[in-house]
Amino acid sequence: MPNTPILDVKPPQKVRVDLAGRGYDIWIGRHLTAFAAGHIAALNPNGRVAVITDETVASLHAKTLNAALLEHGLTVSTCILPSGEGSKSYAMLKHVCEALIEAKIERGDLVVTLGGGVMGDLAGFAAAIVRRGVRFVQLPTTLLSQVDSSVGGKTGINSPQGKNLIGAFHQPSLVVADIAYLDTLSPREFRAGYAEVIKYGLINDAAFFAWCEAQWRDVFAKGAACTTAIAQSCLAKAAVVMRDEFETGDRALLNLGHTFGHAFERLVRYDTARLVHGEAVAIGLALAFQFSHFLGLCTPDMPLRVIAHLKTVGLPTRIQDIPNFSASVEDIVEAMLQDKKVQRGVLTFILAQDIGQSFVAKGIEIDKVRQFLSGVLEA
Amino acid sequence: MPNTPILDVKPPQKVRVDLAGRGYDIWIGRHLTAFAAGHIAALNPNGRVAVITDETVASLHAKTLNAALLEHGLTVSTCILPSGEGSKSYAMLKHVCEALIEAKIERGDLVVTLGGGVMGDLAGFAAAIVRRGVRFVQLPTTLLSQVDSSVGGKTGINSPQGKNLIGAFHQPSLVVADIAYLDTLSPREFRAGYAEVIKYGLINDAAFFAWCEAQWRDVFAKGAACTTAIAQSCLAKAAVVMRDEFETGDRALLNLGHTFGHAFERLVRYDTARLVHGEAVAIGLALAFQFSHFLGLCTPDMPLRVIAHLKTVGLPTRIQDIPNFSASVEDIVEAMLQDKKVQRGVLTFILAQDIGQSFVAKGIEIDKVRQFLSGVLEA
Question: pTM to 2 decimals?
Answer without folding.
Answer: 0.91
